[in-house]
Amino acid sequence: MDPHLLRTFVAVARLGSFSAAASELGYTQSAVSQQIAALEHDLGATLLLRRPVRPTDAGARLLEHAGPILLRLGAARADVARLSGPPSASVALQVTPLAALDAPALAAAGRSMPRVALTVGVAARDEVAAAVATGAADLGLLDGVTAPSDPLPLPDAGPLTTRTVAEEPVVVALAAGHPLAGRRSVRLADLADARWLDAPAVATPLPQLRALARAEGFRPGLTYSGSDRATLLALVAAGAGLALLPASVVAEVPAVGVAEPRLVHRTELVHGSLTAAARAFVAAWGH
Amino acid sequence: MDPHLLRTFVAVARLGSFSAAASELGYTQSAVSQQIAALEHDLGATLLLRRPVRPTDAGARLLEHAGPILLRLGAARADVARLSGPPSASVALQVTPLAALDAPALAAAGRSMPRVALTVGVAARDEVAAAVATGAADLGLLDGVTAPSDPLPLPDAGPLTTRTVAEEPVVVALAAGHPLAGRRSVRLADLADARWLDAPAVATPLPQLRALARAEGFRPGLTYSGSDRATLLALVAAGAGLALLPASVVAEVPAVGVAEPRLVHRTELVHGSLTAAARAFVAAWGH
DNA sequence: CTACCTTACGAAGGACGTAATTATT
DNA sequence: AATAATTACGTCCTTCGTAAGGTAG
Q1: Which of A36, A122, A279, B128 has the largest count of CB atoms under 10 Å?
Q2: What mean pLDDT value characterizes chain A?
Q3: DNA-binding: present as a keyword of the record (chains A, B) (predicted)?
Q4: pTM score, two decimals?
């Protein structure tokens, strides 16, 4: 199961086309066809249905493995490169939208090191973690909601070092006229049948909400795919649905604390092995 | 980074010899030398020091990734095979030593299916999980200690289905004359400086204990590498050290409950996608 | 001098591109 | 008919084994 073949398989499945995958990967259509045939022969199973191109059950199963495998392979390569490569004078940082609220601390740490070029990018949590694991970023700043004693769940791409930089209560943001407005606190599970706002980039994604509440439900009323906090709050205020957010983000909108289960919103700084510049940056973070 | 090369690299590092790895893998010494050279060239780093053969820093880092990568690759292959292969009339089960306490339920489930051949093997938790992930076993029965709401931590080899079959309080087993004997309960962190019995196969391994207590310490007084419960209890009774165990296992020996953090000992039945025979077995488990 | 890793070299196999073929819409 | 995957085939590159060469203990 050559990673090369796996990469091609993933591309074909994603694009739904041999030829499109070929041009994306810089192969001929024929080469891609041969690679898929080789993979199918190796595994002894048909992985793709043709015309239209779409994964079989076995292929879908393989896809679930292929991503993590390719990610870990990249992480291994990056890890070795960091240990044996030349030190860099620049620091690449990736942050999730809400973690960017720590911008003041970030800017301060950046100012304290005038000699290093600092690059900041914004992405979803798994992407930030993947970037750090594969060395595309030196540092990640990511946020999420968990039980107080649990770490934020990250895709398993090897050992990453994690440091909590902020932790605060979570609240359910809601519209002013909502029946729950004014309540002191609620149990998350009691809100399973409420109308939720699905904003995976900014608020807690609904699948995670189900896992945290250990309950089904939490159906999306409206989906907001952007990453702007003000827009999200405006939508909540307009009654589009509930959103689980860190307390400090919710200002202009009523909110109710969550009593059960016990949850916190945490911002973590995560990195693999560091270059000297990145290490200094992490040290400077603590002021 | 061909998995083939990775496998060879792991073998060489483990055996500390190119020639030994060659004979284990069925290559000539020369082929192994060329494979390692190819891997080092690909990654642009020296991975092994020669004479004596031992990993460099970069090589050690790569080793941390190689195991999980190879495991996941095997899991992917097994998963595809299960979905497209022929149904089997036998069920292979792997259990951890303490999970074997569920033997009555196990035997009952086996008896209820006279037509299928049932194989049972005993191994450590990670090995059981790896066997299930790679398809070496259909079902795993494994045990461990965690927070009540957390699943047992398993090596990440893809999505496995998990079902709790037993859950009970944990206690610290100790010798009759121990100062703590008679106490109602203790906080785990308060025992960091006590003398512990390191019995990774039967009791909670000490590194895990440190993680659960979120404290350093828990130094081993004596290490018991066997997997026999009676021997373990005899050692505890003889004052060799403390052991964190499920309550039901501790009978002849004094024990103290753990108040903080809240912990349980859980036994879980875990499997990937199931053959018909294995599925019936799982169903029969519930009587 | 001896065990053991590396290098040289040739043969076998594998991978990719071009081009012809087949199959689906 | 047109679009798109497969097969045929030649070339190049890779990989392995045999055998010779180096090197550390």
Answers
A1: B128
A2: 88
A3: yes
A4: 0.87
